[in-house]
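Sanity check

After download, print the first record. It should look like this:
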Amino acid sequence: MRKTVLLPLLLLLLAGCQNQEREQRLQKKEAELAHREQELLLREKALTLREQADQKAQQAVDSVRGLPLADSALVRNLAGTWATRMNCIETDCPGSAIGDSKNEQWEFSYDQGNVLVKASANNKVVRVYTGQLQGSELQLTAQHQEGETLPDATITAQLQLTADKRLEGRREINRPDNCRIVYALTLTREPQPLLPR
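Expected structure tokens:
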């Protein structure tokens, strides 16, 4: 009779030990999962903080340059080459007529808060403009260079983005002999060359 009582008791103890080992393994796995989850949460928080710091740094750079964040993004999007067509719409200068047209390539870039534009004709830079975005309008002024044809003239341009790849505006030349020429401007973004793979 002792054997019959001891055997179930022994089996019960053995089963209890196995259950205890299983429970310890489950607790260990739960602890490991909780630890991994905590590490992932810390990494996610660090990544969020880094993204916020990068965004604040960019905002600080843009504010130092004197441009609101949205405006600076617009100016950076203008960077590249634009085919420029100029049609004379008003003139009282000798040697120029309404309907005269010119074609140039304008290369836009951005440097320390200023928009820079190099105007080229026949692969030669003929004029350099500098300016800034004022509201939704880009205001440009030509910089005088050596050997230019109109050294005493004031040349300005005002442009507005009318579509994703299109700018429109006016270019005005005021000469010292009290005459002026006004051109209607249409700029179309030229396709970017594909880089070799």
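If your output differs, re-run the checksum step. Summary of this record's structure: The two ends are 87 Å apart (CA to CA).
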